[in-house]
C-alpha cells in the first residue's frame, strides 16, 4: 500500500464542553489559543475550533454537550488520564504565562528523559501536559 497514508494528517480533535462561549473564553484567554472558526449550524449548534496557533497542528473542535451522556463526559474524556499534550519551544515562558493567566497546574515542572513537563487542568478538569520535548 505504498502512498496509502502519505497525504493524511489528524486535523481536528473533538473536546466535549459544557458551553461554547465559556470554552472559547478559557482557551483563547487562558491558553492564548487562536479562535479559528465559530460558525452557526442551526438548532443551537456551532462549529467552533481553536488552535495553539493558526496553521500549527490539529485544531480542537469545542463541541457543546447535547444530552446527559455527553454531559457526563465533560471534564473526564479519558478517565482521568492526560487527554492532550501542548508542546512548546519554551517551557519556562509558557508555564509562567499560564500561571499568570490562572491555569491550574497539578504539579511543579519536572524533567523527564523525553523533556520538561507539567500537568495542568482545563476549565472542566481535563488533564493536559505542557511539554518542551528534548531535542
Brief account:
With 135 residues, the chain is α+β, with helices and mostly antiparallel strands. It contains three helices and nine strands. The protein is globular, with a radius of gyration of 16 Å.
Give an overview of the whole structure.
There is one protein chain. The protein contains three helices and nine strands. It has 135 residues and is an alpha+beta fold. It starts with 11 loop residues before the first strand and ends with a strand. The mean pLDDT is 94.
N- to C-terminal distance: 32 Å
Spans of at least 5 consecutive residues whose pLDDT stays below 50 are none
Largest sheet: 5 strands, mixed
- Beta-strand residue percentage: 35-45%
- The average pLDDT score comes to 94
What is the H/E order?
Answer: EHEEEHEHEEEE
Question: Helix coverage percent of residues?
Answer: 10-25%
Give the C-alpha Rg.
16 Å
| General form | globular
- DSSP helix count? 3
Number of strands: 9
Structural class: alpha+beta
